[in-house]
Amino acid sequence: MDLLHALIALGFIALGAVLQRVAGMGVGMIAAPTLSLLVGPIAGVTLSNVAASVAALILFLMLRRHVDWPRFLRLAPLLIAGSFLGAWAVASLDHGWLEILLGTCILIAIAAALGLQQRFTLTGNSAVYGSGAVAGFMNTTAGVAGPALAVYAVAAKWEQRSWAATLQPIFLLANLTSIGTKALFGAAVPGDVHVPWPVWGAVLLGAPLGILIGSRVARRVDPAKARVLALCIASAGGVLAVVRGVGELVG
């Protein structure tokens, strides 16, 4: 069973990394709901944070010349603030409610990214700060920062190449902060949860494997279509998380 879980984790993390290489985001949205179903919502999101950190570091090194550093510096403080609020929520809620929160955050973010991004034009620091805070909170509680930033990027007319490159240091900061704040609140990996070593191996290897594959197909795949695919796959995981959370509360 440990090996099966590791293979499932490896496959979905690699798929997320392929999509992140092509479209700028994907690891957190694909890995978080998958790993949460395998090892529980708290440990699953933390493992997703680890996988997303690995992917973001590799892609940052590859795309660093296109990073928009002024926008990164405006987003960074609120990412950290949102992460502290998210860590408090993770430490305070029981598993059932946390599953529902995780799934709901994913579904709300996806709905916003698919349905609202073309209807508004966002300008000024308030839009940047709001996006940063929401992304930090969602990344810590649900492992998904990308959709909140996608809404801002499209509405603010942020050019795709610069946006995809700038997301990588944002994701790296967001995920390392999420791990750190949850550890500070004692909510990174519960003491009664055992994560098998093969699953840890899959978490560390999935992102490099997916980026390697994604680098070969990036020129042949439309980034917009890859982004929509990532959102659709993540929505299935979000629905499953909500259903399982409701089942735990009812049961």
From TrEMBL:
Record's signal peptide: none
Keyword Cell membrane listed: yes
Subcellular location: Cell membrane
Pfam families referenced in this protein's UniProt entry, alphabetically: TauE (PF01925)
Protein name, as recorded: Probable membrane transporter protein
Lineage: Bacteria, Bacillati, Actinomycetota, Actinomycetes, Micrococcales
Keywords: Cell membrane, Membrane, Transmembrane, Transmembrane helix, Transport
Membrane topology label: Multi-pass membrane protein
Similarity-based family: Belongs to the 4-toluene sulfonate uptake permease (TSUP) (TC 2.A.102) family.
GO CC annotation terms, alphabetical: plasma membrane
Membrane-crossing residue ranges in chain numbering: 36-60, 72-91, 97-116, 195-214, 226-246
